[in-house]
């Protein structure tokens, strides 16, 4: 069931870089699937600039609260930073139909930048189920590691390998630096990936070379979030057609799409 209503803001604060954390009391969303997302209206009902909602992954669920990590990219996300604890915010959620499959024996999660927030709830679910996995978290420089506190608070320090391109934190290099070796060391590995398109394309090159299943949680600008506007399509190579990120996704078999 999809809910379209106003929810109370519990917390909305700056984290690091250009990233903020929004915590919302939303008891109806406590069972939202890992990989699902929300559409947030940045302004009050009587304002229309910006008009469209903004899409964000549900990064975590804590009892009756959802956590959203978001980057400031433009007018819409900047408007959300003005929201205060105690105020209400309009949300359409949970959205999406296709999520990460859970039948593989081992997972490597690869998140780039704010894309790590598209994997964190799935990682928490794997941990709860006792399924083996390793997560890769990659950014350009240390100040972009906006989910470090979340990783520590949830006890994932030993499960996450951090890469920075400039070597300012963790391992120096790209998320693909040790990926082939990690795949070879863990038979029946599946990749779960979310982040910038360039990063996901590089991961897919490794997946194709090693014949590894890879599932991509795609990020896309959306006007509606539920399949009406057809503004977030990607090419389905298998059927030579186009499919919607918001409705048929947001997770797709990376070997079958062109993005």
Could you explain how this protein is built, in words?
The longest helix has 14 residues, at 197-210. By secondary structure, the protein is an alpha/beta fold. Strands 4-3-7-1-2-6-5 form a seven-stranded antiparallel β-sheet. It has five helices and 17 strands. It folds into three domains: 3-95, Beta Barrel (Elongation Factor Tu (Ef-tu), domain 3), CATH 2.40.30; 106-216, Nucleotide-binding domain of ferredoxin-NADP reductase (FNR) module (Rossmann fold, 3-Layer(aba) Sandwich), CATH 3.40.50; 220-259, Dihydroorotate dehydrogenase B (pyrk subunit), domain 3, CATH 2.10.240. Strand 14 and strand 15 form a beta hairpin. Helix 4 (179-185) packs across helix 5.
Descriptors:
259 residues; seven-stranded mixed beta sheet; alpha/beta; Elongation Factor Tu (Ef-tu), domain 3; Dihydroorotate dehydrogenase B (pyrk subunit), domain 3; globular
Question: What's a concise summary of this model?
Answer:
The protein is α/β, with parallel strands linked by helices and 259 residues long. It folds into three domains: 3-95, Beta Barrel (Elongation Factor Tu (Ef-tu), domain 3), CATH 2.40.30; 106-216, Nucleotide-binding domain of ferredoxin-NADP reductase (FNR) module (Rossmann fold), CATH 3.40.50; 220-259, Dihydroorotate dehydrogenase B (pyrk subunit), domain 3.
What is the class of the largest domain in the CATH system? Alpha Beta
Cα Rg? 18 Å
C-alpha termini separation? 29 Å
Shape: globular
Spell out the CATH superfamily of the largest domain: Nucleotide-binding domain of ferredoxin-NADP reductase (FNR) module
